[in-house]
Amino acid sequence: MADYTTFLTKEDFSGYEDPERYQKEWLPKVEAYRKALAKAIDPAYTVTVPKDIDTLVEEQFNAVDYLYKKKLLTPEEFAITDSSATSLAAKLSSGELKAVEVFKAFAKRAVIAHQFLNCAMELFTDEGLERAKFLDEYYAKNGKTIGPLHGIPISLKEQMAFRGKITHGGYVSKITNVTPEHGITTQILEDLGAVFYIRTSQPQTLMHLDSNNNFTGLTRNPYNMKLSSGGSSSGEGAVVAFGGSAIGIGSDIGGSIRAPSAYSGGVGLRPSTKRFSLYAGVSSGAGQESVPAVSGPMTRSVEDVDFLMNHYLNEGKPWVRDAYCLKMPWRKVEKPQPKDFTVAVMWDDEIVHPTPPITRGLKFVVEKLKAAGVKVVDFAPIRTQEAFDTVNKMYNCDGNYKQKELLSGSGEPLTKLTKWALNYGDGSKEYTVKENRKLNVIRDQLRYDYNKFMVDNNIDFLLTPTYSNVAPVSENVYGWSYTALFNILDFPALVFQTGLFQDPEVDKWNESFKDFKYRSELERLELEQYEPETFSGAPIGLQLVGKRYEDEEVVAAGKTIVDIIGADLFKH
Amino acid sequence: MADYTTFLTKEDFSGYEDPERYQKEWLPKVEAYRKALAKAIDPAYTVTVPKDIDTLVEEQFNAVDYLYKKKLLTPEEFAITDSSATSLAAKLSSGELKAVEVFKAFAKRAVIAHQFLNCAMELFTDEGLERAKFLDEYYAKNGKTIGPLHGIPISLKEQMAFRGKITHGGYVSKITNVTPEHGITTQILEDLGAVFYIRTSQPQTLMHLDSNNNFTGLTRNPYNMKLSSGGSSSGEGAVVAFGGSAIGIGSDIGGSIRAPSAYSGGVGLRPSTKRFSLYAGVSSGAGQESVPAVSGPMTRSVEDVDFLMNHYLNEGKPWVRDAYCLKMPWRKVEKPQPKDFTVAVMWDDEIVHPTPPITRGLKFVVEKLKAAGVKVVDFAPIRTQEAFDTVNKMYNCDGNYKQKELLSGSGEPLTKLTKWALNYGDGSKEYTVKENRKLNVIRDQLRYDYNKFMVDNNIDFLLTPTYSNVAPVSENVYGWSYTALFNILDFPALVFQTGLFQDPEVDKWNESFKDFKYRSELERLELEQYEPETFSGAPIGLQLVGKRYEDEEVVAAGKTIVDIIGADLFKH
């Protein structure tokens, strides 16, 4: 396998780590944090893990299969946690379900998820239960729900400010940062009736499509514990796909909603920018607007993406409190008929060729779509390498100033993929404003050209891989060209599941691939990892992309496509 | 009077000007350009100017009064050109008016405007007439208009790319830049039926609230030719307020729609960003997104702002062709009742105190609003100095790289206010990305705080000066804190006329003002200029500001306010 360390020669990491200071000043705080997390696991919700975790990892344990086969929940708990948020909300509204019973079922499934997958950074099921009780009392007293999310258990990526709790964003230096108020999105969800009980893991720097951090380490994939749950919304990917929350809120600047959704077996939307409020939280991105981060929903159905976006935007109106957000309600867009839209397929972004399961997933979906009457054409990538180079420069063009400030604040050890991420673009070269503006001009022209291609050719959507592979082995994900392309373009992108899973017997390189010449060291690094046996059982998720601010159209078409392919993540 | 030159000590202008090269290589091109402009003045539309222009300037000639008193147009021409675009469109649609008769009336009034005010950079009334004829033929043949702007004469700021014509943006180095295609906004307006015939003046660099440039020199104020028409949409300000076009399209990054609208006696909207397409044209701003420029309408009525925004956005859909634009249709918002909204008044931004006519205008409007039942409160400025310092840094933080490139390309002489503008912020200090991001963080916090203030206090709108004074003497406008504040906040801002005009007998400094201590050299520079006699007859326009992306609400309330104060710019 190619050696990743050859890619880490440019950067000087001096001034980041300070082992002595970290051990003395910060590690005790981290240990206390870990203890608090362990202590917060309510035994009422736990199960017996069949073997020690290292063994399960080694055995590529499928925690989802185990959950169902061993019937770790009661039939009632399965019925609740395998319902869409949309249908739960209807039943909570009619009184058919109580918030407390819904909560307990999800809390149990979330704690089991955490036992296997290490997805939580903070658990507070006691507070969640109190909240659910309050909501039931409210309903009993008023004969109506408190809002459209009344009693819906929602998981939150840790970086989002939460009232009265630590918000560290994966940086040890922020371990004493107790945020006095909810962030605006959290407040809106609470105002609409959501129940909170888990804040989920993310990697150091938030810039890995993986999970490693000095608080809680790795988060594992629900379908194959040797693999990554993805990142940076690592814990959201795992807990949502495992069924431990009805809806999760992640964030995405290069693929951080989509990678964990695809890898872990879920659904996720990277909305167009400025529809979700990002105020307030911890990240390195303050003032960076060349490629802005977004928040968005992670679910087990496209219907629930629609449900969340609709209520969050139309009742939550984030623009009222956050002038950063666009006053852009969620439009009601009906599911299109198959004959009424055209999909262009990107089989290969010409940066990293997809592995066999991804190509199989694309072929499967394309065949189904064509059979259903959808017009499908091939898409010839437009300057993807330039886009990838440019977006990577945008991430780091402050010379890693903010990352360095946040990391060196504690002197914490840098993880492998942190070093990788600090090498993006031109590493710690500090750009001038002039140079940054030139990157923006490239971005704007790319955006114009992709849009023009779609408009001129009547292409409604692009269908692409989310990543060149299914879920990677933890700490071995280097490329994110398939997702970051749509961050730089700011096109809305929905990850959905094909319902297929990697199969080592089927997903071998085609015979002709032995003549394939790697087009870059990055491609070699990614593709030489692909040994079919390693990725056994990993979900095959894909990405559907629409025109900028046509989030609603993407979600509506996503529903049609999932109907066509017949993938239902609530059925096992 | 304070010496403006004391403010020009920081900057090194070497490398910009090259008199020898300019004289030899570029001046002949400029002279040919001027000749072409002079030749394009169709004698059929001209009038006899009563005295030479220098004398009229010296005499503070009121060209608007002269137009009416001397009846320079026929009653039919007055009736047409003193109609709103809204009503013209209805009459063109019903067949009551023909495009040719509408065009000829506006062409005549525009040419007269140019004779007095020097507002055109390019005239092509021959092409306009052909277009009007084509539209009449289309109507005769099809029994309907080609679109909602069928036959509406629209003037365009020169910097907007126009098919087959030079687009220079005020930079001599761009004098051979023939743009092959219309910009997207121009194309949309044409597709909707507009008639083009004049492209209007702008200052060198586009960064003055004034007009001086090496192509055509100064544009004059319609109401007092000694004064400036404003800038940078200088010619739009003059031609629209004079009645030479039904609607003008300007652009604004620091006040460039609002200053000329206010100074010249018109109405103008600086929309929130990304509603209008800016693709393509000439400016120094490519890739600069800390404080983005916007385009927007300049008119003689708030109704016509609504008319243009409605059709441009809802039928033009700029987001289809320009992925930079937001998919955000123009919402239909009814005029609010006076009792249904609250206005907070900024009597003084604490940077430059308003002069007597502006304070009188504010008092007049406040009294009228209160009498009508509008709730009016005082507004205590929030960190206006920080906002002003920050926005000024944002303009130049590429170290004036792009301006220098565009200016030194020809070595053209720098005008006084170009030197002033190149000194904004930290002048030619080239910021790093890190430093730029810090400015953005300040901006975002300001935006958050202003919005929060308005939301928490149920303030719907701010009423403020547009500038500390009425129209300034040409080349003597230094401060733009009142307008630039809403560029950095990205709040929509509508300039409207009070119907009042400066009166030297009335608009004297209050006796108490003699004790006023200037709070800065900028304030001294601005206020020491105020000799009442100089500004005789200048219109008193004000600014109404709403929350971000509540452009529709601002326009709707603007209609109510204009109804209350009874200012009708079509009546003389």
Keywords for this structure?
Amidase_dom (chains A, B); homodimer; two-stranded antiparallel sheet; alpha/beta; Amidase signature (AS) enzymes; 15 strands; 572 residues; amidase (chains A, B); amidase activity (chains A, B); eleven-stranded mixed sheet
Description:
Chains A, B: It is an enzyme of class 3 (hydrolase). The structure is a homodimer of 572-residue chains. The longest helix of chain A is centred in the last third of the chain and has 24 residues, at 433-456. Chain A is built from 20 helices and 15 strands. The first copy, chain A, has a single domain, classed as Amidase signature (AS) enzymes. Chain A is 40% helix and 12% strand. Chain A starts with 18 loop residues before the first helix and ends in a 7-residue tail after the last helix. The model of chain A has no long low-confidence stretch (mean pLDDT 97). Chains A and B meet through helix 12 and helix 17 of A and helix 12 and helix 17 of B.
- The beta-strand count of chain A equals 15
Largest interface: A-B, 45 and 45 residues
Mean pLDDT of chain A: 97
Strand order, main sheet of chain A: write it out: 1-5-2-8-10-9-14-15-13-11-12
User: What value does the Rg of chain A take, in angstroms?
Assistant: 22 Å
Overall form of chain A: globular
* CATH third-tier fold name of chain A: Amidase signature (AS) enzymes
At the first level of CATH, what is the class of chain A?
A: Alpha Beta
Structural class of the helix and strand makeup of chain A?
Answer: alpha/beta
Could you say what the CATH architecture of chain A is?
Alpha-Beta Complex
Euclidean distance between termini CA atoms of chain A:
36 Å
The share of residues in helices of chain A is 40-55%
Main β-sheet of chain A, in a few words? Answer: 11 strands, mixed
Number of domains of chain A: 1
Low-confidence runs of chain A: none
- Count of discrete alpha- or pi-helical segments spanning 4 or more residues of chain A: 20
The H-level CATH homologous superfamily of chain A, spelled out, is: Amidase signature (AS) domain
Instruction: State which percent range the strand residues of chain A make up.
Output: 5-15%
Oligomeric description of these chains = homodimer
